[in-house]
Amino acid sequence: MKFKSIYLSAALALFLVGCSAGKKITAEPISVTTPLTPKQAELTETELERWSHLDLMTDTIPGMSVDKAYKLLEGRKFKKVVVGVIDSGVDIEHPDLQPVIWTNDKEVAGNGKDDDKNGYVDDVHGWNFLGDINHENMEFVRILKKGDDGSETYKKAKAEYDRKYGEAMAGKQRMEAIANADKVMQEATGKENYTAEDVRNIESEDATVNQFKPMFVQILSNITRKELMEQVEGGMEYFGGQMEYHLNMEYDARKMLGDNPDDFNDREYGNGNVIGPDKDGAKHGTHVAGIIAQVRNNGIGGDGVASNVVEIMAVRAVPDGDEYDKDVALAIRYAVDNGAKVINGSFGKYYATHSDWVYDAIKYAAEKDVLIVCAAGNEGTDLNKPGGVERYPNDNRNGGPEISDNFLSVGALNYPLDANLIASFSNYGKKDVDVFSPGVEIYATTPDNSYEFLQGTSMASPNAAGVAALIRAYYPKLTAAQVKRIMMQSGLPIDIEVAAGGNPEDMRAFSDVSMTGRIVNAYNAIILADKMSRM
């Protein structure tokens, strides 16, 4: 959906003051009128922890001008907005999230009854569609397990499986080889945490030691042995998890849940434990919730984009592995039916067996005036290249016309104002990505009262969702479709070339990597929302 710039429209000069409560905002929107000068100095720790809130023109950091937006909103009335976080679970006990967790006041906690008759027993803070499941197959594995039906989808899934299995096996073997070589180097140097110099000074007639020596000298010239082994441990966990769960044809988590994922009417599954079976599995969702809603200015952790005005409804539907279309569709409907006005979806996949259920849920959300903000994906690929892949969920059914006007797709920004402005991992696309927002090294809540820097379009999406929630809180009469237009039209256009997918050989104008060529800007969004609300 393409829109002409509202800033250029003479219609905005004509508005009805009586249509919106509060004093008219007269501030001028931020505009980029001169060539931008990149920040030369490294970001300080304080700047890095909240760079997404900073201002491009003042701080020379491509944040969303959140701090500046709050100054516009001082003293203004707002209506609390419920934001549904469809994710891996949320640590609702985290002290920086406890004050902003949604509570279903129609439900009596722990009585084993469906007090509000919404079909979900004891859904006090949301719903857990995964029960005690943490891990899942990839969707293409589930397709293979159903048998060869001769379809192109099956053939594609088989090719994907063969490629991924080979990569996982090779990766696991590579990590094991490095771990074994490390033991050899420890023995040869007589040290547990040896250095490049220690390895260089080894004198040995052992062929194995001499084989590994040049490799370790090179590696340890760039990182420490401790850092190397942390990477190896992470690699072992990653590739091991792929082999044990994601690609394991014998693994069937759905049996544990007692649900038929191919029957949309079979809905009596899951529970009210929105954290999940363990807090570690809720890390992703807890971080996403924190970006939106961790308490501002309380002297601990980071600051949420919209913590003052939102309540987080936790909807657990995203496992380690690919989510089920049924869970996603029901999660969207649950959030809509229980009062969410914004839904964040920091997940996605490239195969879908029941995409119609999700499309119908997106349209249902549109009918109920709910905005869905979704991550564009982390494969560093052009979603709109000829013969490109289809990423789910989306709102345009294989590149066709949009099915609704309530779905916003978000790519991830980096903080350097140069060729690396879009994150190397971020997907992009002139049709399938609407806007970009900060998604690299974002500081937010993680389980057990902790905070971490994480990155991904999974972090960019809640940054944008937080801005959308601000708009809906202070201007509740604006529709989801209007909020989407505001988000797209009020962003800052950046006139530079960027390395698409992190590839310096593929330089593109920033205006060509998304539909709008803009980065989300809360300050401009509030100004435009104020004007729209008075029309």
TrEMBL record:
Transmembrane segments: none annotated. It comes from Flavobacterium litorale. Residues 79-490 form the Peptidase S8/S53 domain. Belongs to the peptidase S8 family. CDD domains: Peptidases_S8_Subtilisin_Novo-like. PANTHER family: CELL WALL-ASSOCIATED PROTEASE, SUBTILISIN-RELATED. This is S8 family peptidase. Keywords: Hydrolase, Protease, Serine protease, Signal. The active site is at D87, H284, S458.
